[in-house]
Design brief:
The chain is an alpha+beta fold. It is built from six helices and nine strands, in the order βββαβββααβββααα. The chain has a domain of 136 residues: M1 Pyruvate Kinase, Domain 3 (Beta Barrel).
């Protein structure tokens, strides 16, 4: 989770940057969580809400692999393909803020705040491995014009009483991460079965481990 900016080219494979490891593979890493981007603009919002951690809230401190002030969840769509260096990356799901964030910054409630405010950043799958140099820019290579923005998808997921049909439509988005797709379909199926009963609140993003 403690990332440092390299001063040399790094190789990006199908499961992430070479030399970058994930300790808990149950919820981190894998082809659909190969690279994490966290918008740099979110750090100001976090510092305002958690001033005791402001000095530590710098790009890289939330464990992201890349950061930019030019993109956020409203600017990207599920399935968008971007070029970074010689690699190509595809947006596929939001990040689920981990409970370890609270420990990392000694700030109770930070992970929950990130989830509630949708300040999550997102994961990319690697379409084309390649070499990344420090300072390389993200360039939109293949836009997913008909797909929802990540912000819109997250907003639907967090709605208190979504329509099962809308969740099914979201799950059918081309190139959505399979793990998130299954969760969306499971919730849609449950809602369809409970159509005549009060619907449950939206499940929060993962902020506590399922098991130790």
């Amino acid at each position: 989770m403690f990332k440092q900016t390299p001063s040399y080219p790094v190789e990006l494979g199908l499961e992430g940057f070479i030399g970058d490891e994930q300790a808990d593979r149950r919820v981190h890493g894998g082809p659909e969580k190969a690279v994490h981007l966290y918008p740099a603009t979110h750090y100001t919002k976090l510092a305002t809400r958690f001033p005791e951690a402001a000095a530590q809230l710098l790009p890289g401190s939330l464990g992201e692999n890349i950061s930019t002030s030019e993109l956020d969840e409203h600017a990207v769509r599920i399935g968008d393909i971007y070029r970074l260096g010689s690699a190509r990356l595809q947006v596929c799901q939001p990040r689920n803020p981990c409970w370890k964030i609270d420990d990392r910054f000694n700030s109770d409630g930070m992970a929950a705040f990130i989830a509630e405010q949708a300040l999550t950043g997102w994961y990319w799958r690697v379409i084309t491995p390649g070499t990344i140099n420090p300072g390389d820019s993200l360039e939109l290579d293949q836009p997913a014009y008909n797909a929802p923005t990540l912000a819109a998808a997250m907003a639907l997921w967090q709605v208190h009483r979504p329509l099962a049909e809308e969740l099914e439509q979201l799950a059918a988005t081309p190139d959505i991460a399979s793990g998130w797709q299954r969760k969306i379909l499971d919730r849609a199926a449950w809602l369809a079965q409970q159509s005549n009963q009060p619907r449950p609140p939206a499940p929060a993003f993962h902020v506590k481990p399922d098991s130790l």
